[in-house]
Amino acid sequence: PFRFRARPWELIAKESIGTHDALGGNLWLHTRRGEILRTVPRDNESLNETWASDRDRYAFQGLYSADRATAPLVRRDGVMVETDWETALNVAVTSLSATLKAHGAAAFGCLVSPRASNEEALLLARFTRALGSENIDHRLRQMDPSPHAPGLGLQVAELETIDSLLLIGSNIRHEVPLLGHRVRKAQRRGGRVCAVNPVDFDFNFDLAAKRIVAPHQTSRALASIAKALLGADDASPPPELQALLNAADDSGAEMAQRLRHGEHRAVLLGHLSARSEDANQLRQLARF
Q1: 3-state SS assignment for residue 8
Q2: Is the separation of the CB atoms in 210 and 200 below 8 Å?
C-alpha cells in the first residue's frame, strides 16, 4: 500500500506497539503530515526480533476505512448523525444519569475491548466504580469466567530453545504469528512439538505427535497425557483433578513419551482453550 505514495526521507517515524495479538511486537509508524503511510518492524530481539506480523503491518489501513467513525455520533429520530464532542458528552451524561436514577448502579455495566490499552481499561474501571458499579469485564468471548492469572513463565526468546512443547487448543501460526515463528525455530533445532486440538491446523512446523479431539473431549485427552507423565516422585494432583485422572485411559502414553524429550519444556494454552467452557479445568491440567 505504500508503493509510490511518498519518498522515505519525507516520513517521520513514530514508535508504536502491535495490538493484534498478545505479543505486543514493536513497530515504527511512518507518517507524513499526520497520516500513517506504512508500518515496519522496530527491532526488539526479546520480542519480535526484526519481524512484524501481517496484521500489524497492514492494519493501519483500517484507520482510513470509509465506514470508520471520525466524529462523535448521536441518534436522532432513529438515525446516527455527526455532532460535536460537547453535545455527544452531554447526551451520554443525560442517558447514564437517567439509567442510574431509574434503576440504580447495579443496572450499569461496561465491556472493555481486549484490544484496549491498559491505561484505557484502568480509566474505564475507575469511571465505572465511581458510579457505584462493579460490573466491568474484558472477557467478551470467554464462556468460563473463572479468574486466572496467565503467565508464560519464561522469556519469549527462550521459546526457540525449547526441547519439548505441548500446544493445547491453539493455531499459534494464526493467533500469535511471531510466537509461532519462535516455535518453528525450536522445532527446526530439534525440539519436539505436540498438539491437542479440535482442528488439524496447517502449521509451518512439523509435529512430533498430535491428537485431534472434539472440544468437549480436550480435558479427557489432557488427563490421559498427564496420567502417563505422572511418576512416583511427582506431586499429587489437586483434589479437583483427581477424579478426572483416575478415569483417564492410556491413550496419551505415546504423546507423553514425546514430551519427556530434553530438559527445557513448556505448555502453551491457545485461544480456543481460553474460549472453552472447560477453560479453568484445562488451565489446571496444563499447570499440573
Answers
A1: helix
A2: yes
